[in-house]
Amino acid sequence: MPIQFLKGVGPKKAALFARLGIETAEDLLWHVPWRYEDRSTLLKITDLCHGEECTVVGKVEDYRLIRTRRRAFTIFEVRFGDETGMLKARWFNQSYLLNLFEQGQLVMLSGTVHKGRRGKAEPEMQNPVFEIIDEEIDQEPIHVGRIVPIYHGTRGVSSRLIRVLINRLLDQYLGRLSDVIPQSIRKRLGLTNFETAMTEIHFPLETSECEGLNCGRSVAHQRLAFDELFLLELGMGMKKAGIKKRDTGITFQCGGPLSERFRQHLPFKLMDSQECVIREIMTDMESSYPMNRLLQGDVGCGKTVVAAFALVCAAESKYQSVVLVPTEILAEQHFLTFRRLLEPLGLRCSILIGGQSKTERGELLQGLGDGSIAVTIGTHALLHEDVDFKRLGLVVVDEQHKFGVLQRARITAKGMNPDILVMTATPIPRTLALTVYGDLDVSVISTRPPGRPPIHTIRVSEFQRSKAYRLILNELQKARQGFVIYPLVEESEKMDLQAAASGLEKLKIVFPDHYIGLIHGRMKPSEKDAVMNAFIDGEINLLVATSVVEVGIDIPNATIMLIEHAERYGLAQLHQLRGRIGRGVESSTCILMTAGRGSPETTRRLNTLVNTNDGFAIAEEDLMMRGPGDFFGTRQWGLPELRVANLIRDVVLLEKARTEAFRTLDNDPHLAHPDHAGLKAVLYRRWKGKLDLIDVS
């Protein structure tokens, strides 16, 4: 039922509710309170105490509207009484209340009590919450005299209005709510029934229930959170099953002469965790089912060389590969890396980005079409309709969270069920990874290359700039290199570049004996290549970069980084930037410079970075601070929004939901059993058609 057809809503209010993500009556029921207020203890007027939050019932004795000298400001004053005394209540700029109150009415009020003005005996309340009680009707109050739910609202939609509508909805339709979780699961896990849970999460009857709800552990919360997580896991399970059961994929021949030559060509020994992940990838590629695997690991853990093994395996079976990345600078850096690794094996690599000449682009498209190009690295330019491949067999997506589901669908559609490997340097705990990326198999590189000492991170203020410069100079005098990162000024990229350019000139004065370079997103590809090559060759000692540039290049000699205005960055982004140094055997230092003390949240974020180099620990802290919705970008990758459950707090419940969901699908893969009809309907409604994208990682 669209929300606009509920009594008291209408089209205009419905548009306001849409801001809260509420479009139907079902959405409204799942808009649960974010906290509760205990207004259940009724006191007599004589027992009211100054400064305390109290609830009282009184009869309207008299009232008046006071107009102040400033005509726009009014005070509505009412005197209430019970058998023990009198109470005065005042509401400011709410003159419409004059039409609500009548003498002799019984009213329940809740608010903070103040001493009477000018020493008068009558206590006062200012702007109290109230509810008019009809003595002839045995009605249960919903705004006062009980544990009251408090909802997130928006301009034009108050918590009070939401409370009224949900109460009305439960009164009318509670008996028609359908419990879709199979009875066997409810019994096995001891879950309360759906009607009771939905009623108690909105209108708990006891203080103990209220306390449980406020800390997220009530019986009602557990039940509704389980429902959400079960439907999430069920949808993920169906997506994964759909991928496994779609048309047969490519069966690659892995581990042949080309793979052996590649292994011998590497100038270093692979870590055990890399070898383990390579075996998992090879097993997938040799299978007749299309690979759909997530490769996650911390910054600098060696994901690129693992991906290169997959590219070699595809080429050995005469198939082409693409590496899809979010930015041009990252594409250029990957191109340099993969060309260095693969061209000695006779594999032709290319790069496809925006801004290339018509002639250059034409030659690339011809090479892709005739199959002579084995590996192509590119940005969104790869998604254009005129980009065709002769035999696309493998798609690698780097920084996968920056691509939407449909974008990944477009690139995979250019092949015949190609294998898919998605990579992320934002690691998350495996339990959450299995859920959030539940339609993928998960591989983790859990260690860093040996011999790399941890990066020492310090925080300094603007007033300590000279200290930061001394640390940089100390490294440069040892013939080492470093970075100075300037933040993105969202209002104007031009301002951003001006700040970086201005910083560059100041740094040239501070470090006159060292060569300083600049790189930013507006430079031409040839200019970026020239700067990067000079930095790689050691001609540039200190590289100034704007934060729109994802500097992902591997410079073992870079041992120092200064991040200007570190308070403007997110935790994950800071960790990514820091990962550009510390790739050699020398100790490295990252300097976080901030303007002022910053907020408590900023302090917590920066202290986390100072105290640990562990990407998994940083990701968990980032999850805690930002919340799972912002961290994972659920709207971007197409999962239903969680209104009750929390992927961090409810991780134990999450594991139970996953177990039950996959058990259900093992027994009834298509939810065709009559007992699952309601479950299937709710599942598809909750996912809103997104299960149609089951062939997209």
Short summary:
With 697 residues, this protein is α/β, with parallel strands linked by helices.
List the main descriptive attributes of the protein structure presented here:
Rossmann fold, 5 domains, six-stranded parallel beta sheet, single chain, seven-stranded parallel beta sheet, 697 residues, 22 strands, OB fold (Dihydrolipoamide Acetyltransferase, E2P), alpha/beta, disordered C terminus
Question: Can you tell me about this structure?
Answer:
Helix 5 crosses helix 7, helix 7 (219-245) crosses helix 23 and helix 19 (600-611) packs antiparallel against helix 20. Mean pLDDT is 83; it is low at 633-637 and 693-697. The protein has 24 helices and 22 strands. The strands form 4 sheets. A 7-stranded parallel β-sheet has the order 12-13-11-14-15-10-16, with helices on both faces. The protein starts with 9 loop residues before the first helix and ends in a 10-residue tail after the last helix. The relative contact order is 0.10. The radius of gyration is 31 Å and the shape is globular. The chain has 5 domains: 3-34 and 152-203, no CATH class; 38-150, OB fold (Dihydrolipoamide Acetyltransferase, E2P) (Beta Barrel), CATH 2.40.50; 257-445, 3-Layer(aba) Sandwich (Rossmann fold); 456-629, P-loop containing nucleotide triphosphate hydrolases (Rossmann fold); 656-697, no CATH class. A hairpin with a 2-residue loop joins strand 4 (74-82) and strand 5. It is an alpha/beta fold and 697 residues long. Helices cover 39% and strands 19% of the residues.
